[in-house]
Automatic annotation (TrEMBL):
Entry annotated with the keyword Transferase: yes
Transferase among keywords: yes
Protein's name according to its UniProt entry: (P)ppGpp synthetase I, SpoT/RelA
An example molecular function term from Gene Ontology annotations: GTP diphosphokinase activity
SUPFAM superfamilies tied to this protein: ACT-like, HD-domain/PDEase-like, Nucleotidyltransferase, TGS-like
GO annotations of cellular component type: plasma membrane
TGS domain ranges (all copies): 412-474
Length: 762
C-alpha cells in the first residue's frame, strides 16, 4: 500500500481533508430532515466505513471511501432518501470487504439498516459467472423490492456512481458494465420513476459505447441552445401572461431531450440530427398545496390556456392525471402547433407531481409519511413481481427466461380496464383477455374459455384497450396448453401456465430420459452429465429437461442420436490429428477465460496477447463475422463464444451487444482487426431527389474514382424522389467513410447511411 502511495505521488494529508470535506457536504445536504440522534448515527457509519476501507483504493488511485461517500450523496441529494438510506449507502460494501458481519451491523445500526445491507451484499458483483448466475443474482435483488425498496434505490445510486467514474476502467470492462446498465438498471430506474437517474445512466452508456456520436450530438445541442432558448421564450410569452392574469403561480422549464433519446430517435427514424424536430419539451410546473382538490383542476385550467393560443394535436393528448402510471407518475401531456409550424410537446403538472416525476418512488415518502409500502399502482406491480419470482422458478434457465421477460416489461406502458363490478385493473400494454383472467385468479385463468367485452363475445387472445369492461367465461373442461404461452404477455400469466403444463410434461420428460439412456447404451456412449449437455447443445434445446421432453413428445426422433454420435466421433478424430491436447484450440462452447488463456499461449510476449486478431487467428481458432451486424475492418468489435458455432465477431454497437455483454460476461473475449487487407460486404442506403444522370454519377464515384466492387444496386423512384440500396465491398470503415462523404456531394443526394447487409436495405 505504501509503495502504491509513493508511486502515485499521493498527498495523504490532502486526501484526509478531501474526505472530511465530502462528509461535511453530505451532512449539510441531509441537515433539513435530520432528527434526534441522526447526525451521530451518520457519523458512526462514516467512521466505520473509513476504518473498513482504510487500505483500499479504487482503480483510479483514489481512496475507496470516496465511493461510499459519493453513493450516500446521490442517495440523499438525487433520490431523496433519509438517514437510514444514507447509513446503508455508507456501509454498502463493508460486509463484503471486511470481517464485519450482518449481526455486527444490526448491533451497531439497527435491524432496518442491517436488512438493507444484507440485501445489497447478496446482489454484489457484476455477475462474471454466466447468465444463469446473473439471473439468479438479479432475482435476489428483485425479491428485496417488497421488503424494502431502499435496497434497489441504494443499488441504483451505487451503479450511477460506478458509471460516472468509468473512465478509469479498461475498454472491455467499460463495455461490459455499460451494457449491463442499459440492459437492466436504466429500465429499472424508469419503472421506479427515477427519471433523472434513468436518463443519466442512458447518456453514460452512450458516452462509452458510441463516444463519437455522443460528442457530435452534445456539440450540436450546445450550438443550437441560443436558438432554442429564443423559441421557448417567444412560445411561452402569451401563455405566461394568461397564467399570471388568472392568479396561477408557476415555473417554466424548457429542457432539451436527452442525448440518448435523440440518438435513439435518429437511429430508429434513420434521420440526421437536423431533421429531429422535437428536441425539447416545455414543462409548466404549477404551485398548489400537495394533494389538494385543486391539483387536477389547475392543470386542466393551464391546458385550456395553452390551447387558446396553440392548436393541439387531438391524438397526442395523454392524461396521466386521472390514471397515473404504475410508478406514480402524474402529468398532462399535449402536443401543440407553434406559430412557426413546429410541433411542441407541453407537459403540465404541479410541483408535487414534478418532484415525484424526477425522484420517483422515494419522493412519495415526503407526502405519504415515510411509509416504504407506498399505496397505489406501484405497490400492485411490486406484489406481482414478488409472486412471479416466488412461483416462476424451477431451474436456472427459468431464471434467465424471467430476466428476459421482466426486462421487456420494465419499459412497457399500462392499460386500464374494469371488472364487471367496476373494479379498476392495471395491466401492461398488450395484455390479452387471458392475461386479465390470470390476473383475477390462477383458477379463473386456467379454465378461461372466452370473454365478453361490452357484452360482445371475444376470444382469449383479444388485446385489451383502455376502458374495456371484461367478463371472463370459464369451463371445467378447459385446461392450459402450450399455445397459451404465445397469447399472454404478463409474467404472472406465463408463470401460472408453465406451472400447469409442468405436471403434464413431467411424464414426457421421464419417458424421454429413459429412451435417450437406452439409445446411448446401444450406441456405446456413456450417459454422463457432460454427454447430456452436449446433446442439449447439439439439438439446440435450452435445457436438458427440454431435450428429454422433446424426445418424449416425438419432436426429436430417437434415431437422430446417431447423427450426434457421428458428429462427436468426427470432432474427437480431428482433435487427435491436431496433436497433443496442450496445442489443440479450445472447443466451441469453452468460456472466454479458457480462450483468452489459449490466445496468450499462442501469441507469446505480444503486448495485447489476450486479444483475438481477426485475420491472423483464423487458422488457430474457429470464428466468423456475425450476420446481425456485419462488422467490417475498423469497427469496434468483440468476440462472443457461442455454444456450438465457434466464436462470433460482433460490433460493439450491434443491436444484440448490450444483451450479450450483460447476460454472458464470461463468454466475451477482446478482439481487434489484424490490419490485413480484406474485402468486407457493406450496405449503403441513399435517398434524395431524382434527376437524369444521377445513377451514372453514383456508379462513377464507386467504380471509377474509388475502384470499389459492387455486389448489387437497387434504385426506386416515385414522384421525383428516389431511394436506393447499394451493396459493395470495402476494405475498412475509413474506406467506407470516404465513399459516404463523396456520395453526399452528388447533386440531388440528401442522405447516405450504412445499413446491415443481412437486413436487405431500409
Amino acid at each position: 500500500m505504501e509503495q502504491l502511495v509513493e508511486s502515485l505521488n499521493i498527498d495523504l494529508e490532502q486526501e484526509r481533508k478531501d474526505i472530511l470535506k465530502k462528509y461535511r457536504r453530505l451532512l449539510r445536504t441531509a441537515k433539513p430532515f435530520l432528527k434526534d440522534n441522526d447526525a451521530k448515527l451518520i457519523k458512526k457509519a462514516f467512521y466505520t466505513s473509513v476504518d473498513a476501507h482504510k487500505d483500499m483504493r479504487r482503480r483510479s488511485g483514489e481512496p475507496y471511501i470516496y465511493h461510499p461517500l459519493a453513493v450516500a450523496q446521490i442517495v440523499v441529494e438525487e433520490i431523496g432518501l433519509g438517514t437510514t438510506g444514507i447509513v446503508a449507502a455508507l456501509l454498502h460494501d463493508v460486509v463484503e470487504d471486511t470481517d464485519m458481519g450482518i449481526d455486527d451491523i444490526e448491533r451497531l445500526f439497527g435491524k432496518k439498516v442491517a436488512k438493507i445491507i444484507d440485501g445489497l451484499t447478496k446482489i454484489s458483483g457484476r455477475f462474471e459467472y454466466g447468465s444463469s448466475q446473473q439471473a439468479e443474482n438479479f432475482r435476489k435483488m428483485l425479491l428485496t423490492l417488497s421488503d424494502d425498496v431502499r435496497v434497489i434505490l441504494v443499488k441504483l445510486a451505487d451503479r450511477l456512481h460506478n458509471m460516472r467514474t468509468l473512465d478509469s476502467m479498461p475498454r472491455d470492462k467499460q463495455l461490459k458494465i455499460a451494457s449491463e446498465t442499459i440492459f437492466i438498471y436504466a429500465p429499472l430506474a424508469h419503472r421506479l420513476g427515477l427519471y433523472s437517474i434513468k436518463s443519466e445512466l442512458e447518456e453514460l452508456y452512450l458516452k462509452y459505447t458510441e463516444p463519437q456520436e455522443y460528442r457530435a450530438i452534445a456539440r450540436k445541442l450546445r450550438e443550437t441552445k441560443n436558438t432554442r432558448d429564443r423559441f421557448i421564450s417567444k412560445f411561452m410569452e402569451p401563455i405566461a401572461q394568461d397564467l399570471e392574469s388568472v392568479g396561477l403561480n408557476f415555473i417554466l422549464k424548457g429542457r432539451p431531450k436527452s442525448i440518448y433519446s435523440i440518438w435513439n430517435k435518429m437511429r430508429k427514424q434513420s434521420k440526421p440530427f437536423e431533421e429531429i424536430y422535437d428536441l425539447f419539451a416545455i414543462r409548466i410546473v404549477l404551485e398548489s398545496p400537495p394533494e389538494s382538490d385543486r391539483e387536477k383542476a389547475i392543470c386542466w385550467q393551464a391546458y385550456s390556456i395553452v390551447t387558446d393560443h396553440y392548436k393541439p394535436n387531438p391524438d397526442r393528448l395523454k392524461d396521466f392525471l386521472s390514471t397515473p402510471r404504475a410508478n406514480g407518475y402524474q402529468s398532462l401531456h399535449s402536443t401543440v402547433m407553434s406559430k412557426s409550424g413546429q410541433w411542441v410537446e407541453v407537459q403540465i403538472r404541479t410541483s408535487r407531481m414534478d418532484e415525484i416525476a424526477e425522484k420517483g418512488y422515494a419522493a412519495h415518502w415526503k407526502y405519504k409519511g415515510n411509509d416504504t409500502k407506498v399505496k397505489g399502482n406501484i405497490e400492485t406491480w411490486i406484489t406481482q413481481v414478488r409472486e412471479t419470482l416466488e412461483n416462476g422458478f424451477g431451474d436456472k434457465t427459468a431464471a434467465i427466461e424471467f430476466l428476459d421477460e421482466f426486462r421487456s416489461n420494465l419499459f412497457n406502458e399500462e392499460v386500464f380496464v374494469f371488472t364487471p363490478k367496476g373494479e379498476l385493473k392495471v395491466l401492461q400494454a398488450g395484455s390479452t383477455a387471458l392475461d386479465f383472467a390470470f390476473d383475477i385468479h390462477s383458477e379463473v385463468g386456467a379454465h378461461c374459455m372466452a370473454a365478453k367485452v361490452g357484452g360482445i363475445l371475444v376470444p382469449i387472445s383479444y388485446v385489451l384497450n383502455n376502458g374495456d369492461q371484461i367478463e371472463i367465461i370459464t369451463s371445467g373442461k378447459q385446461k392450459p396448453n402450450e399455445d397459451w404461452l404465445r397469447i399472454v404477455v404478463t409474467s404472472k400469466a406465463r408463470a401460472r401456465i408453465k406451472d400447469f403444463l409442468k405436471e403434464e410434461n413431467r411424464r414426457y420428460e421421464t419417458d424421454g430420459r429413459q429412451l435417450v439412456e437406452k439409445k446411448l447404451k446401444i450406441l456405446g456412449v456413456d450417459a454422463t452429465a457432460e454427454v447430456m449437455n452436449q446433446l442439449r447443445a447439439f439439438f439446440e434445446c435450452k435445457t436438458t429437461t427440454d431435450f428429454f421432453y422433446r424426445i418424449g413428445k416425438g419432436y426429436i426422433p430417437i434415431d437422430d442420436l446417431k447423427r450426434f454420435k457421428r458428429d462427436r466421433d468426427a470432432k474427437e478424430k480431428k482433435a487427435a490429428e491436431n496433436g497433443a491436447a496442450s496445442n489443440t484450440p479450445p472447443a466451441a462452447g469453452s468460456d472466454g477465460k479458457t480462450l483468452t488463456k489459449y490466445l496468450k499461449q499462442i501469441h507469446g510476449d505480444r503486448a495485447d496477447n489476450d486479444m483475438l486478431l481477426i485475420g491472423d487467428d483464423m487458422d488457430k481458432i474457429d470464428y466468423k463475422l456475425a450476420q446481425c451486424c456485419n462488422p467490417i475492418a475498423g469497427d469496434d468489435v468483440f468476440g462472443f463464444v457461442t455454444i456450438n458455432e465457434g466464436i462470433k465477431i460482433h460490433r460493439t454497437t450491434c443491436p444484440n451487444a448490450a444483451e450479450l455483454m450483460s447476460k454472458h460476461g464470461n463468454r466475451i473475449i477482446k478482439a481487434k482487426w489484424s490490419g490485413k487487407e480484406e474485402a468486407f460486404l457493406a450496405g449503403l442506403y441513399l435517398s434524395g431527389t431524382d434527376r437524369v444522370g444521377l445513377v451514372n454519377d453514383v456508379t462513377r464515384i464507386i467504380s471509377n474514382e474509388l475502384h470499389i466492387n459492387m455486389r448489387g444496386l437497387t434504385i426506386d423512384t416515385k414522384d421525383g424522389v428516389f431511394n436506393g440500396d447499394i451493396k459493395l465491398y470495402v476494405q475498412d470503415t475509413r474506406h467506407l467513410d470516404i465513399l459516404i462523404a463523396k456520395l453526399e456531394q452528388v447533386e440531388g443526394v440528401y442522405n447516405v447511411q450504412r445499413f446491415d447487409t443481412n437486413l436487405g436495405g431500409k
